[in-house]
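ENTRY TYPE: paired fold submission
RECORD: A
CONTENT: sequence, then structure tokens
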Amino acid sequence: MSLAGVLAATALAVTTPAHAQETLPLQTAVAALPVADEDRTGYDRDLFRHWIDADRDGCSTRAEVLLEEATTRPSVTGRCTLSEGEWYSWYDDTFVAGPRGLDIDHLVPLAEAWDSGASNWSAERRERYANDLGDERALVAVTARSNRQKADQDPAEWLPNGAAICRYVADWTAVKHRWALSVDPVEKQTLTDLAAGCPDVPVSFTPAD
């Protein structure tokens, strides 16, 4: 290869990241989700090691999400013990005082991820998924009540309050793309139907490592 060719290839490698962000209209992003039947055989929540302290700053993933999403910053004492503060739970349009009434929800639940491809992942990749702080949509602080109502259901089985549906569908689709997860046929049809009612909604995602 000529020197010019080498320089051109080098420039391309520098300017085109391996995991570049992609942005698609919501309906296009939903249409691009791969379809596969789900199988929960072998699932155990403990296969997704979660609430770790990845950066060793004393705060678990749960605490990091609470700190990031607080509308009024909580007090932090000792080994990242949180008190006071306020949060907005967008699933049910509710403000929550203090962290005790909150759960940190995996927007695409761990069991759903397992069904959709994570059963084939390494333990390390499942841990990264369960503690994904690289995309603010992956983990959300919501009321314990709404999180437990949702449980491990997909959008064909559970949705948040009406005003939040388009956001939920877009975020669900983004997380599925980020982690290269499939959807089952009923889930795909539900997402397609819901996306049709959410015009001009973009979906941006960066594929996870």
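RECORD: B
CONTENT: sequence, then structure tokens
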Amino acid sequence: PYSPRPGTPAARMPQTGRATVKQRAADLRGDVAAVRTRWLDGLRGQSMDVLAERDGTGYAPNFARIALPEGTPAGSIVTITPQTVEEGLLK
């Protein structure tokens, strides 16, 4: 959400109510989540090289976050073919 700064044109404009701002922000977050899920769904079944992180996940070159097999060493690059999407994570 927006915070008006004194002296700017936007600060002089009529301000939108707090409840409306919160609802619009929530709507936008929901829309972004839906677009992200569709994008991740399109990546299922595609092999990709993934850079392993310490938390058991990693990132593909397109920045998709992917669950890795247990014990994958951090810093290694592994080829993964994800089959599902759960909570914004390819598995």
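NOTES ON RECORD B: The radius of gyration is 20 Å. Strands lie at 48-52, 57-59, 65-67, 77-80, 85-86, 89-90.
STATUS: closed
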